[in-house]
User: What shape does this take?
Amino acid sequence: MANEVIGYWDNITELGRATNSMLIPGVVEENPFRNPFLDKAPIAQAGGTGPSIKWLRSGSRSLETVQDFTLGEELQWSKGSNYTPVETSLKMCYKAIRLDNFVKDIYQTVNNYREMAMGECETDCTLKINQKFVYDDTNFNSKMFLGLHGWANLQEGATGRFSNLAIDAGEKGLSLWNLRQLKRSMPYGIDQWWMPGVILDLISAAYEEKGFAGLASATAGAYAQITRTIDQGTGQTITKYADVQIIDTDYLVAEQANTGTSSTDPRLLYATGTENYSIFGIKWGSIMGGSKGKVPGMCYAFGNTRGAGDFFKLDVFDKLPNFDGEGIRLINYGAPLLGSKLCLGRIRDIHADDAVTA
Assistant: This one.
């Protein structure tokens, strides 16, 4: 009996812990993930779009078609514009749980069985979507959408003045020069730098204790582009580079070097060798309401819900076959959208064991 699954819980022992009448209401979270992407990303509800969302990016410009002329000169007609079509499919993820009728009495106690199970189910789905927001790649698995790395992989190999939207750090420490070059390649600007905590710790150590490699801590200008302030509301330290806030997130983890180098090469999690990390520069914005007056940045679009603002589709099953209980299923249909490629930049293959360099 101890090893049997009891409704939502793994076994009867876990059931007993949750049904004890002396429990304080709720469950204390013991595994928080700092700074989820969905907390900052604009959320856009897609209605009537079908299984995918399409938009147009402007193509190449032909400035030669703008010509000088003099009074009385015969004018020539020129060709029009060209566009690059972009399409992203909404992908589905879900979690389904069972609620055993045997423990219905708990509905009347401080720990509401259904409410507690629903809350944990929604938390798990949200955590998973934040993880997918970074590492999903439809080129690797057709059930996935294009996450941050998937979109950034499409930037690899670009040439011209936007070639630094994708920078290979060469399995070395963070170079602030690379951050500067990435920022220059994003003409719409950057809302935040997103990086793993281990990289921000190196920046903080350089600022507070060690100095940058090759520079004494008292060298003039060594820290000119790094600023530190304290948020009066939360007491948290806010670090900025080039006046852009640095956000350290637990959703960026150790990665495998030299992966994610093309549209068909997904960025892989760390497996062997030396741990490497990535940094993203992101400009947020939504293309769902049209481009007029809007920055065509990155957002998260979702759809196929029953009501306006419902992030998840909720299915409730009053009776389950071959089981004395009911069922709850949460489904999210969604995907990150990148309106303009100029609103996302990446630096990959950064070593966390090497000092920060100017």
About this structure: Confidence is low (pLDDT under 50) at residues 215-221. Residues 113-135 form the longest helix (23 residues). The first strand starts at residue 43 and ends at 46.
